[in-house]
Amino acid sequence: MLKLLLVKIIYQNQGLRLRLFITLLTVSLLGVAIFPVVAQSSNLASGPIYIVKQGDSLNEIAIRFGLSAEEIQTANGIDDPNSLFIGQNLLIPGLEGVTGILTSEVLPLGISLNNLSRQYQVDIGDLVTLNRLTSPSEIIAGVSFILPINDSQSQQPIATPPPGASALETAIRSGISPWVLVESNQLLSTWDMLPGEILFTNQELGPNNSSIVPYVDISVNQLPIVQGETLHITISTLKPMKISGDFNGETLSFFSENDNEYHSFHGIHALAEPGVYLFEIRAEGTDGTLLNIDQLVLLASGLYGKEWVRIDDTTYLDEEKIAEEDAYLQPILDRITTTRHWEGQFLYPIDEPCLSSPFGLRRDYNDGLFFYYHTGLDFRVCAQNLNIYAPAAGVVILAEEMFTFGNAVYIDHGWGVISGYAHLEEILVEVGDIVQPRELIGIIGNTGRSAGPHLHFEITISGTPVNPLTWINQTFP
């Protein structure tokens, strides 16, 4: 799970309007080199180093830094441009004043050039040059950003104190000198700080730093956001707050089982256009405290392939009848209940999960007669039985014969999460039944729009189908 690094917030209370920054840590997984790192010849010029990663080519590296392949070859004494290997050190020329190891990091929500400059002790102009930026708006959460990492320069963030605390108070609680704090963050003095602004230090923090806790702690499960996947947002607060939000104009619903942790699950449509979208969070405390967060985030392609399907009975490709079924089913799937029934990871709904068609494939039915995408997973029969089980606890909200899905069952797991099962031979539950994990709910069949006996299994969030394998492989919340 990726944690947000620096979230820009507007704090308003009793007529005061302050800029507040929240600090969180991010964990990045770095690829492991399969060849030893090779030091460059001592007669080469000095400068920042890029370490070759799997899939890199000389041309791609050159384009990334706005150079030609020949310039990198000359700077590194490379005769054969095809001789690169994973873990090789490459000097990147033309970046005077920049030192350290150049690495690509995915930008978290709320990050700014100023924050990056302070944390890594790098001139903002160098960051602009490295990433060929033309506008501050290009600092987008989820985008890969080149950073020069130097252990002797990089600083750790100091957890943001509650609104109103000063730089002097922050320094004292952190166990460091106020003047070190000023120098580390390029401040004019201890007064040169917006209340709640994120600060950094390269010194070891004192034992009292644990008393300086984030006023609001926000994390998301994935950046960049991906087509067809689940967006899970977790917000922790120091006190109860009313939380709301939007992603690309679509409402985010938040739920809580206590007074200081809130969860929202949002389905990203598999056909959503990749690009940059607005993410917004609003929080209101009982004392009138207002917090507003807004950030542009990247939505990336799910890289789904294509699939050609042939149906013998073309009646099931009648778009008018399909639309009628969708209109009937959508209000049922849109329901959002405030009780969470499931715990831990979802289980496979069958005994032998032989996957025959994954989620998200762009489907062509009968050579262009009908086009859509696969909204779930298809499992062919591999087990010694045809049993279908509930993957998690929930309440049955639909159990009936339908047009496209044939005999179908839908289970409400709470918080907008619903699982569906289609093409059943037999339905073994009724609407209103409370089911537990591994409870028998049906028998695999070949009803509805089906090319053979199989189970179509899907998960929707607030009515939007998402990749069910994510719920089987991960634990939410």
Descriptive overview:
The N terminus is likely disordered. The chain is globular and about 70 Å long. The longest helix has 15 residues. Helix 1 packs across helix 2. With 477 residues, it is α+β, with helices and mostly antiparallel strands. The protein is 14% helix and 34% strand. The strands form 6 sheets. Strands 19, 22, 23, 24, 25, 26, 27, 28, 29 and 30 form a 10-stranded antiparallel β-sheet that branches. Strand 13 and strand 14 form a beta hairpin. It is built from 8 helices and 30 strands. It has 2 domains: 221 residues, Immunoglobulin-like (Sandwich), CATH 2.60.40.10; 168 residues, Glucose Permease (Domain IIA) (Distorted Sandwich), CATH 2.70.70.
Q: Which features does this protein show?
A:
single chain; about 475 residues; alpha+beta; Immunoglobulin-like; Glucose Permease (Domain IIA); 2 domains; 10-stranded antiparallel β-sheet; 7-stranded mixed β-sheet; about 35% strand; globular; disordered N terminus
The overall number of domains is 2
Cα-to-Cα separation, first versus last residue? 11 Å
Low-confidence stretches: 1-44
CATH architecture assignment name of the largest domain: Sandwich
CATH fold category name of the largest domain: Immunoglobulin-like
What's the CATH superfamily of the largest domain, by name? Immunoglobulins
Helix tally equals 8
CATH class of the largest domain: Mainly Beta
The whole-number mean of residue pLDDT values reads: 83
Rounded Rg: 27 Å
Number of strands: 30
Structural class: alpha+beta
Instruction: Estimate what percentage of residues fall within beta strands.
Output: 25-35%
Q: Largest beta sheet, briefly?
A: 10 strands, antiparallel
